[in-house]
Amino acid sequence: MSLPTKYNPSQSESKWYQYWMDHKMFHAEPDPEKEPFSIVIPPPNVTGVLHMGHMLNNTIQDVLIRKARMEGKNACWVPGTDHASIATEAKVVAMLKEKGIDKESLGREKFLEHAWQWKEKYGGIILEQLKKLGASCDWERTRFTMDKDLSDAVISVFVDLHQKGKIYRAIRMVNWDPKGKTALSDDEVIFKEVRSKLYHIKYQIEGTEEFLTIATTRPETIMADVAICIHPDDERYTHLKGKKARIPLINKPIPIIEDDYVDMEFGTGCLKITPAHDINDYEIGMRHRLEVIDILNDDGTLNDKAQILIGEDRFIARKKIVKLLKGAGQLDREEDYGSNVGHSERTDAVIEPRLSLQWFLKMEDLAQPALKAVMDDTIQLFPPKFKNMYRSWMENVRDWCISRQLWWGHRIPAYYLPNGEYVVAKNKEDALAVANEKFKTSFSLDDLQQDEDVLDTWFSSWLWPISVFDPGYFQTGKKNRDLQYFYPTNDLVTAPEILFFWVARMIIAGYEYTGEKPFKNVYLTGIVRDKLGRKMSKSLGNSPDPLKLIEIYGADGVRTGMLFSSPAGNDLPFDEKLVEQGRNFCNKIWNAFRLIDGWETQASHEKDNEAAINWFENRFQQALEEIEDHFKKFRISDALMAIYKLIWDDFCSWYLEMIKPAFQQPIDQGTKNKTVDFFENLLKLLHPFMPFISEELWQQLGERKDGDAIMLAAWPQLKPYDEKIIMETQQVFEVVSHIRNIRATKGISPKESFQLTINTNNQNLYRSCEGMLRKLANIDALNFKGEVQNSVNFVVKSDEFFIPLEEKIDLDLEKENLEKEIEYTQGFLASVTKKLGNERFVNHAPKEVVEKEKRKMNDAQAKLSILMDNLKKLV
RNA sequence: AGGUCGUUAGCUCAGUUGGUUCAGAGCGCUGCCUUGACAGGGCAGAGGUCACCAGUUCGAGCCUGGUACGACCUACCA
User: Which residues contact A864 (CB under 8 A, 6 or more apart)?
Assistant: First the structure.
């Protein structure tokens, strides 16, 4: 036997991944004979590189898909990438900027060329990295949200929804990203606690020497003020009603109005109204029919409407205004103030509320079937606690701003006409035809101007579960074979952060376009955090490089490490220790293999091992039942832990130790065959979690033909098992533990064997397990009769055991231990007896519970009498 | 500010319909063990008033109300 004592992952990994690929084992085609099972990958951004979150997410998907495949289902896991419009565009802009190229001067066409080059260069990296993890994706089906046919699907859907009257164009206050120069959806805005200042500014009341003080965090917007607002009931300001105040610096008179929106307690109780730059002010402005003065450009600099500081950035302008106000004596004071300020998720720029013309999708009606499907568990969320969140969002859903002022993405198929109208159509030619028909004129193609904006990136990914199988469906309305067969998909594995961004919208699109749910189960993973509980991120530098981890610990080690501690919906506090544990598990399995594989066999039949074999057969079934239950409930970590313990404890620590022949001795053929069978079955259970080592060992364990693989082997079948055998063997294990314990406390070497005397009415059990006791407890003979002098005794259930110890016995200590045990048992007995003596308990509690208590009482009484006897003998 | 969820061993978490076989697991820790598949190993062991306070009940980790702390979601006040 010349195998190394450590498993070498890197060799197996590349070898078996290639083997699976060569035999097209990941590929699935519709097959009416087989039950379909499909998962679509949450498409990672083309800009992305693999991070720990992807590792967790994709490992879970791989576990689910591999198990389904072994269960004989037609498993199809569709991979792909997302164009991620703003995220990618931001990166390309940054890359160009480094080269000294400006996006605007480059122009749309040229810029897109660069973006596509970027996509070609980096877009595939992340998928390649997934292969290292062992992901069994059907790579032939790899999709990209901007593939031609997927793009056509997006455009078709836009046209369709527009025709249905669900898409409209409107001027609204939107979240404006001055850095990305685009509107953002509410979901793309992150609020951060920012320390700022509250500036108290004095406005002069027109025609008087009196001043009125307002508090604002944004002094740079005073030039856009159109009114001062007070509370109608505020007596402090009653005398100002109907008067005007002058904006400092530009000296412009604005009316003082009343509105009960104002909080009299806050600040000075006076509010400046700046409709162009604040959502609430905008609403007040609408109520009072005030003018809207927008003093900002799209990049956040001041425009000429500001009258002063034109061209200055808003934050620089703020500082300068403060200085100017001070100089004018109109800054009353400034105080420190903490507030939540919205930031762009992608560019981190401070969001500017801004009025602009955007495209919207009406959500209220669309959301109804999607809300219902989750509430009635047609689609199940794991863990279900997310149902509440989902509901509150769907019930308060707001119209979705789907336009983005970007270039990278699906360009909005709206075409503007010289007459000021517009038409929506799949392409320019169609648009022309529609326009000419509608307006009874004859425009030419050159008259049509396509909308400059692109669609929100989620407007393509919400179609993903449909479009990856059949992008043409959105145009033809006819499902192709793939869509008919693989849709609805089975499981979706994703992060709760995008439950609304993506999951909810996929459900909406699913019902709107197929009338069906897009998936049955949604498994929500947590966030991978570091030991300090911080989210792992590039900027913090606290995220290990996943590929390096794989290199060091092996893909299987990393996969199991991540799964050891990640119940659904819970964050994963990542610790490299976990991955180390995963690697150690690999080595444990590897060494079990070395042991089994190294045994020479002989024909003789070893009866001693029958009990062990019988026990493990039953124990395996019991564990399998437990594992299946965990899977059913999407308790992936628990399923893994159950397998871990089955292999490490039950198989290695108990079973192998029981049947293991003495050093360099042969084993009987029958036992070896059984053991190899067991090991193969364990490897099968392991395979979804640890695909590489399980394949490696399975291939080595028997004669395999080319094209055989554990990944296609049949998942073990659940069979009935005998609980009694497991319980009784457990009892024998307890005896073994007692003996080991006595050895440990009395300082008896495990090498020193002795006879065990047993007082029992179940001799058969111990006779059949004699082999176990010999090997595990180093017993050289069992006696069933007779008194033992100078012995240490213990009791398991109602059986009594004696170990002869001669001079090693400390009588006082024995007595003390015995008394302790008696005391405990008496206490236990007393509580049970008391309970059974309580009439209300006996009358109220269910029969089984009372029966159980009675049994406990009887057991305790039996045990107690044995213990008392022993005590007498000692004294 | 409102909502949802959580608080169980040093750490990370199980504990499904209330019933001392329910107070658990993994890791960590302590002691002992090294020619024997594996020291990245084996065996044995210690560790918890189940956040706190009331209540319901014959009986509460589990149910009810409240308090404290934490996480997330939604909204956001100048």
Answer: A822, A825, A826, A829
Q: How far is the CA of A741 from the C1' of B46 (A)?
A: 14
CB atoms within 10 A of CB A594: 15
At residue A556, φ and ψ (nearest 5 deg) are -65, -40
Residue A428 backbone dihedrals phi, psi, to 5 degrees: -65, -40
Q: How many CB atoms lie within 10 A of CB A332?
A: 15
Please name the nucleotide lying closest to A859, CA to C1'.
B21
DSSP-derived secondary structure for A59-107: HHHHHHHHHHHHTT-EEEEE-EEB--HHHHHHHHHHHHHHTT--HHHH-
User: pLDDT tens, A352-394?
Assistant: 998 888 999 999 999 999 999 999 899 999 988 888 889 888 9
Minimum-distance residue to B44 (CA–C1'): A741
- 3-class SS of residue A207: coil
End-to-end CA distance of chain A: 56
Cα–Cα distance, A323 to A334 (Å, whole number): 12
Q: How far is the CA of A832 from the C1' of B20 (A)?
A: 9
Are A349 and A343 in contact by the 8 Å Cβ rule? The answer is yes
Q: Are the C-beta atoms of A760 and A866 separated by less than 8 Å?
A: no
Q: Is the CB of residue A399 less than 8 Å from the CB of residue A360?
A: yes
Its ipTM equals 0.95
3-class DSSP state of A542:
coil
**Tokens linked to A44:** 């990672």
d(CA A697, C1' B38) / Å:
16
Q: Using alpha carbons only, what angle is made at residue A521 by residues A516 and A524, rounded to the nearest 5 degrees?
A: 130
Residue type, A181: K
pTM of the model: 0.92
Neighbouring CB atoms inside 10 A of A605's CB total 12
Retrieve residue A705's tokens: 């033909």
* pLDDT at residue A273 tops 80: yes
Please tell me the distance from the alpha carbon of residue A300 to that of residue A321, in angstroms, as a whole number. Answer: 16
Average pLDDT over residues A42-55: 89
Residue partners of A869: CB distance under 8 A and separation at least 6: none
Question: Left, alpha or beta for A627 (phi > 0: left; psi -120 to 50: alpha)?
Answer: alpha
Read out DSSP for A662-710? STT--EEHHHHHHHHHHHHHHHHHHTTT-HHHHHHHHHHHS---TT--G
Number of helical H runs and strand E runs in chain A: 31, 31
Spatial distance from the CA of A200 to the C1' of B23 (Å): 60
Contact between residue A366 and residue A400 where contact means Cβ atoms under 8 Å apart: no
Task: Pick the range with the lowest mean pLDDT from A134-143, A612-621, A727-736, A826-835.
Answer: A826-835
Strand B: which bases are under 7 Å from protein Cβ?
3-6, 11-14, 19-21, 25-28, 31-33, 36-45, 57-59, 72-78
Q: Which residue is nearest to nucleotide B76 (CA to C1')?
A: A340
A39: three-class secondary structure by DSSP: strand
Extract the tokens encoding A265: 């307690």
Q: Pairing between strand A74-78 and A36-40?
A: parallel
Nucleotide closest in space to A338 (CA vs C1'): B77
In this model, does residue A806 exceed pLDDT 70? no
**What is the distance in angstroms measured between the alpha-carbon CA of A664 and the sugar C1' of B34?**
19
Of A661, A675, A655, A647, the closest CA to residue A589 belongs to: A647
Token pair of A339, please?
A: 């507030």
Q: Which residue is nearest to nucleotide B14 (CA to C1')?
A: A638
CA pseudo-torsion sign A853, A858, A862, A867: positive
Does residue A269 have a pLDDT over 90? no
pLDDT tens-digit series, residues A475-487 = 999 999 999 999 9
